[in-house]
Amino acid sequence: MTRVPFASLPVLAVLAVLAGPAEAQWRPRGALAAVPVIRECDETGGDIAVTRLEPPTIYLCPRVVELARKADPGVEHFFLVYEYGHVVLQSGDEAAADCWAARELAKAPNGERYLAAAIRHFRRRGDDASRRYGTPVERAERIRACADAP
Fold this sequence. Notes:
This protein is mainly α. Helix content is about 55%, strand content about 10%. The protein has a single domain (about 30-150), classed as Zincin-like (2-Layer Sandwich). The protein is built from seven helices and three strands, in the order αβαββααααα. It starts with 8 loop residues before the first helix and ends with a helix.
């Protein structure tokens, strides 16, 4: 029997949540599958995740993932797909990454679940405006509109 150190359990839980069954959610394919996803809260500055473009790398904070997942199960998957959007677009354009993630999830298995979680998450955050994202309510509406677009 292999024993897993207790300290590793939270990271394993995050990996299990993000991995899920192979066909149950959006998965990176092609060149995106090679983008490293590093669990390192020091790199995220308190955010759930951030992307660095040179070289393409996604940093994820397991503690923030867990908090987000408890509040809105599934929202953590939206954020991960959104970070891949930055890699694909090679841009820090937040609205474009939102739309890319929304379109990807709209056509993915169980994607509506993750979109609903993200929309619920942002709608609950109210009208606290950000120069990068707009208000959370505007972000929720942008995600819905992009998911519904052909």
